[in-house]
């Protein structure tokens, strides 16, 4: 019993000495924020139904008369281009999911706009928002780290097999 008590005190003293001498913290450094940057981006998303946008699941509702069925989950992997023409320069892609949950074809989307050429090569913008008339930019990677902003969109072409959407992003990043 006496040996256990002595050993316990020795361990307590050693632990106290380690805590006092280790100084696991560092001196406080002054905060030097990076300058805030505002970037405006303009590009087009080209979607091909059944190829780059695929229905993953759909609710079994028999009374659904909408052209876009209620409770449909869609996966997208669409090319981003500099123009509305199918042969315009490819600058990246859009990947994510879209949940069609409204009776008027509204959707909630989690999508990422990735850039693989040019000034923003390797960077991406993350969007999580309802699709009413703009989307909220909630983050990013690469040059768009800690990004916020908005993405306004304008459907250019919507038919049975193709969708082309024009995007205008205003992004605040560091």
Automatic annotation (TrEMBL):
Major location category of this protein: secreted
Places the protein is found: Secreted, Extracellular space, Apoplast
Example of a GO cellular component annotation carried by this entry: apoplast
InterPro entries named among the record's database cross-references: Allene_oxi_cyc_Dirigent, Dirigent
Coiled-coil ranges (or none): none
GO biological process, alphabetically ordered: phenylpropanoid biosynthetic process
Top-level taxon in the UniProt lineage: Eukaryota
Annotated keywords: Apoplast, Secreted, Signal
Signal peptide boundaries: 1-22
Name of a matching Pfam family: Dirigent
Family: Belongs to the plant dirigent protein family.
Subunit structure: Homodimer.
Function, as annotated: Dirigent proteins impart stereoselectivity on the phenoxy radical-coupling reaction, yielding optically active lignans from two molecules of coniferyl alcohol in the biosynthesis of lignans, flavonolignans, and alkaloids and thus plays a central role in plant secondary metabolism.
Name of this protein: Dirigent protein
Naturally occurring in which organism (per UniProt): Gossypium hirsutum
Gene of this entry: LOC107942060
């Amino acid at each position: 019993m006496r040996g256990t008590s002595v050993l316990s005190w020795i361990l307590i003293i050693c632990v106290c000495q380690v805590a006092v001498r280790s100084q696991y913290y560092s001196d406080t450094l002054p905060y030097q924020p990076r300058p805030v940057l505002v970037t405006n981006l303009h590009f087009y998303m080209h979607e091909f139904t059944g190829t780059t946008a695929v229905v993953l699941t759909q609710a079994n509702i028999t009374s659904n008369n909408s052209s876009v069925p209620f409770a449909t989950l869609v996966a997208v992997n669409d090319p981003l281009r500099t123009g509305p023409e199918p042969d315009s320069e490819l600058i990246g892609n859009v990947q994510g999911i879209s949940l069609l949950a409204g009776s008027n074809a509204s959707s909630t989307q989690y999508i990422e706009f990735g850039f693989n050429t040019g000034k923003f090569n390797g960077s991406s913008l993350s969007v999580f928002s309802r699709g009413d008339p703009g989307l909220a930019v909630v983050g990013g990677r690469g040059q768009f780290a800690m990004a916020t902003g908005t993405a306004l969109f304008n459907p250019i072409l919507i038919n049975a097999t193709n969708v082309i959407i024009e995007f205008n992003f205003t992004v605040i990043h560091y």
